[in-house]
Amino acid sequence: MALSRSIFNLRFLKPSHHTPVPLQSLRFLSFATTEEAAAERRRRKRRQRLDPPNLIGRQPQTRPKPSPNKVSNPNTAKLPDTVSVLQGNRLNLHNRILTLIRENDLTEAALLTRHSIYSNCRPTIFTCNAVLAALLRQSRYADFAALHRFIIQAGVVPNIVTYNLLINAYLDCRKYDIALDHYKSLINDAPFNPSTSTYRILVRGLCATGDRERIDRAISLKDEMLSKGLAPDPVVYDHVISGLVKLDDAERALEMFSEVKESLGTPGTIFIPEDIVRVYGSLMKAYFKNGMEKEAMDCLGELLARENTQNSRCKTDAIVYNSVLEALVKNEKLEQGMQLFDRMKNIHDPPRRLTVNLGSFNIMVDMYCSKGRFPEAMEVFRKMDEKKCFPDTLSYNNLIEQLLGAGMMGEAEEIYAEMGGENKAKPDEFTYVLFIDSCFGQNRIDDAYSYFMKMVESGLRPNVGVYNKVMNELLKAVQVDRAKELYNQMLEKELKPDCTSYDLIFKGLCEHGKLDDVLDIIRRMLKEDESAFSEELREYVTEALRKEGREEDLTRLFEEREKEKEKEKEEALAKDSRARISIPSIEALTSKFNKKEPDVAPVEGSSTSQSKPAIELSGSIETLVNGASSSEVVEVESASSAISGQEGQGVESSS
Amino acid sequence: MATHAGISIVFSACKARSPTTSLFLLRSRRNLIVGSNLTTVKCLSTYTAPNSQQQPHDSRVYQRDGVGGAHPGGPNQWNPQNPNWRPPMPDNRNWSPPQDAGGRPPPHNQNQWGAPQDLSGRPFVDNQSQRYASQDPSGRPFPGNPNQRAPFQDPSRRPLPDNRNQWGPPPPPPPQDTNRRPIANTQNQWNQGNPSGSSPAPPPPSIAATAPAPTADLLTLIRERKVKEAVDVLFSGASPDLPTLVSLLNACDKSDFAEEVRRIQDFVFRSPFRADVQINNELIKAYSRCGGMQNARQLFDRMPDRNLETWNLMISGYAANALGDDGLQLFEQMRKLGLQLNGDTFAAVLSACASAEAVEEGFIYFHSMEKECGVTPQLEHYLGMIDVLGKSGHMTEAEEFIQKLPFEPTPEIWESLMNFARIHGDLDLEVRAEELLVSLDPSKTVSKIPAPPPKIQLWINMLDGKNKVSEYRAPPVKKKEPGYVPDTRYVLHDIDQEAKEQALLYHSERLAIAYGLISTPARMPLRIIKNLRICGDCHNAIKIMSRIVGRELIVRDNKRFHHFKDGKCSCNDYW
Description:
Chain B: GO terms for molecular function: RNA binding; zinc ion binding. Chain A is mostly helical and 655 residues long.
């Protein structure tokens, strides 16, 4: 008793209140223990922060007031919500949105999140994260980015999960620099530290590129992770090693291996020495690359032996097995590979133990295809369901590509027919392009065209390159009308034709004597994008017209355009002056606004995304709402009474 | 303010037209803060009440007769029965007469009572424990006899005339005399801590029924969860025993009761229990439930004696109130003091780590638990670690942690992982945790919509570099977003451009909409009524707003109704 009191007198001498001791005074410059270092790291991050608006909805905790001399910078990072804010109405909203996500109505989920920002029940960051994660899971990156921008603008403070999702999304889109920028802002501005997952995501994304510079960056990230006090993560090392293997740098890969082997199992971390098996897949690849076959096979033996000892705390899972399987089959160890695959299937015991997943099947299918054993490939592919694995579009595309490459159109179409069912992966642009290509290759123009139309009708958005390719083939097959149709469709879809498209369509039309159509297109070009009408094109068209003796048509077209331009200028001037004297028509504004109505095909194939367009929060509206809610009532008066003048007398009567 | 000209926005919160529509009525601009009731002024009697009751003597009164004792009128009523008894004075001697009447004034007992409280806490506490030991066999505290005094303590609350009459006549009639006898007996019993003296004698049912005393009153109030009333009873002179106080404190489980807990603390400080560790712990617990950690800390710092539980309670209190950092600081002090830590301490520390989102420290403490303090981690500690990881959003790490558990994960573990996955929106992990949970405990099955399949499973696909769809997919069309540009022609003052734009922001309909938005659920239409013409800039702004907020905004000005919906107005811009 006496002891405790004396301590408190030292620290909490202030008579009435408990004021937390300034952090620095408690700590010395060097840390005696690891936990002190950890605490300091965390607090350094949190020191520059604002508290979340309502701590668990309770009475405001009388936290120590920020001392007056502390500069209160409104731009300091705010602390994200804690889990405890998720209660009451906000929890209901969260659950509602989770249901929408399960119904796969992501457009509505995202829209409801946006609308809830402007209500008495703002969504928590957790709700936003759930929607973002679902969008990422359905690879709707554009919607993801839009929603993320929106919630950040609306002042919802991101947490570590948000950052991880964001970095993941950009890496999936192969926007590595943006992803790294966001990582940088996480390090510099966020009031929390990156997690192990952040580094896993980053290192994985960067190492998948196979680009030397990026992999070097990944290695420096790994070192950064260690310097931040995070435990050496075997998964991160696994990615680094496989990245180095891609660069044929087996030496460094093996260095990495010895590094991770030494550092695993430090107390105070999740990882234990047994976790070393996580890197065995990439390690085996490195050994194979280095010609050290024996060592590689020793790894396999050790892995299997470990499996047999039951008391191992680290259960080998599908990810480890897949990596090892890949190392085997890619290095001509088919026999061992197949054995391992069978073993994986045998010990697979969902939900307790997952040892096969989609990846395992993909490896096997890929292997069979590359050996030309297509029937076996299809058999393995179709047996996936038995293990409750379902192929995604990428797996379908892979198999279809291989089948088509081997000229097995019938089988490919069979596989294609299996797509798109209930709860199955839907074909994407690449699937159709594969079929279109091979149909043209076999001179089945009509089939190719119908595949193309199917793709467009299902809401997919092929890019200009695909259009050009199809137009080219159609023109070759003398189907000028269809080609022109496609050209018009491209304009409808707001795709901007490139030089190749113009080249193709002019040549096609001129060759078939459809000069009027050519002139139409030129008229439209001049109006919308004059620069696209290059000298070469002009020469070519003039030549074609000369043959028909209609050169003057083109000159007339240009003259018309000049006149129109002048007219427009005059109109603009007139409008401007009119606007100054009278109240300008709001119609102009509205028509502009209405034009922005969505007649745009959605990014995604699903029909749901058709319904409502994404709306961006305009910054000015935000200030409007903010300004209005906090403004003084008196100011309203002064501002609005000016307009109303005498009208104001009717205040009471109107109520 | 009769000269007051201005627009009146009529803006009311009555649901006049449709149940899903809220209508805001705003009489004058001064009332823009419609609806936010002034917070009810808290009763300030809290502090005066105990003082007035404390009266001349010290808290011994409470112990003595188990009642607030010093009530006007009370002493008088005693007079007829016990002629020896004199009105209480701040003098110790006053208490001897009743003891004499009881016939057994044991000397040691007197010493106990005579000892001023402030001299030492120790003997005092002992005394108490004696008391409670004697009480326990009787099952219920204050088994009835003190109840009989209820009418004197609080005549205003329970005016029971017949009861009064009982006591009224100067010469005690035989039946009342028999009633009175046990009182004296039991009283002495308690004082001496000697239950064998006479039988505890449950009170005659007739009297107990007619005269429920404050303590019984308290218990019923507590049972009905009327904490405020119970505290009032406390200050009107009840003298509850420790278990009653504890149950009263347990009833304070909402933040609304922070003030009540403070009052109870006042009461406790004036009562003999003030140095009792148990009641102080209960107070800390109650404070942390009510979110009054600062009060709890104050109490903690002043506690003469703390036990391990006190520390644990403080740390877990901080954790529960999102002040995990303070909890961790406290824990550091605890370690420096060299206290023997137990499993509960670590459970509390882990919850503090969870609330401070201190993952790294969580692991360090978790590992030091067994090594340094010899506490073997139990299920609660593993769950605590999952909490630390889950609350910080480290879901992969949490899953990894579960994989490495030295035992087969229990349903609780999977359930907690599932809940965190739900919170953080990790659909795949949630599904997996749910499957595992159901496989262990089929009773947890809930019919949920099956999760939609992910479109592309990049993480497990193993088809590196085969994702070529981006080469064939057109980028999404960038829609021009609706944006607001202030149209200052409607500001007729002669002020600079910026001031004009500023002025537009405060047009009353916008303020009304802004208020409507932040006070109603999403997608609920708003009705704004204004007796002046809406200005053209507001018309445009509201059009854009209606689109962004996804609501129908119905604005009536003095010309017509404007139904703004999805960026359009029903007036077709016939402004």
